[in-house]
Structure formats: C-alpha cells, structure tokens
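hey can u check if this looks right to u? its 194 residues, i copy pasted from the old doc so theres a chance i mangled smth
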Amino acid sequence: MLREWGGSTLQVIYLFAPMIPALLASGVVLRFDLFRALRRPIDGGATIRGRRVFGDSKTWRGVIVAIAGCIFGAAVQKYFVGDRAGALALVDYGGINVFVFGAAMGGGAMLGELPNSLVKRRLAIPPGGTTRGPFAALFYVWDQVDLLTTAWPLLRFWVRPTPRLVVLSVVVTMTIHPISSLIGFLLGARKSAR
C-alpha cells in the first residue's frame, strides 16, 4: 500500500512538472520586470462596489508566462524524456500536443487563482496578504491549492483524476508551493513569502 502511494506521488510530481519551468520563468520575469507591455491586470481595473475584481497582481503577463513555461515543460517531457519516464508517466506524452497540454496546465493553474483573488478583494485582503480569524486556515489552504481546482478538470482530457491522485496533488502542492513562494520572496520576485 505504501509503495503504491509512493509511486502515485512520483506520478503526480511528474505530471505537474511542467509547472516548474513556468514557476522559474515567472520568478525571473517578476524579479527583472520583463515584458512590461503585458503587465496589464486581467480585470482591466474594473471594480465591484469600489474594490478591484482581481487586483493588479493578476496580469496577462502572468498568464502568458505560465502557459509558455508549461508548454516548454511538456515539450521537455515529450521530446527529451519520452518513453524513458516509464511508469511515472500518467499521460501518453508521445501522443500529446505539447501546446494544447501545456496551455491547459498553465492556463488552468492561472484560472484557478482567480476565484480566490475575487473573494480576497471582496474581503479587502490585499494581493499576497492573508486574513486572520476563523477563516485564516481555509484561506491559507485555498491559496496553496487554488491552481489545482481548474488544472485538474482541464487535464482530465489526458488523465483520469482518481481520488488518490487528487489527494496526492494537494499534498505535493501544499508542500512545494510555500517553499517556492519563500524562495521567490528571498530572490526579490515576490512581495510576500506566502
């Protein structure tokens, strides 16, 4: 049983590995403020009852970098790793279109962050900020795993999200996301370590 869960954990890590180049690219882009023309808020500055819909931190630049990074990561899996991934691969990488697969993963991850941002702006929680009180733990978990809420439904075209895979993806994300946020903060790519 433990071996099965360990193998499934490695499969989840390999499945979502294209997000690593996206994360690295995002850090570089934010740190050096690259592609400034794309640094436009997704909400276009729109407000609901005087508060921004998503805020300035959700930009078209972030969406494009996430998608491009995931396409690159999927291309590495398909063209450089290929069949050598063996049982790690939950997806038939030989048969995927890396542009569609990468766009689904990166776009899904970014789309999953929007409901969280919408709710936080309604509660006057600033981008990168957190809340206190009875809902603090809920918002913390949501902040860590929001990218999975739409990435999984979009990846369903390539892989069936079993309960085990979904649970493990949450565990892996809850482990990796805070570490990557801290590294981004220490390198000056993020305003907050959360």
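The first strand starts at residue 47 and ends at 48.
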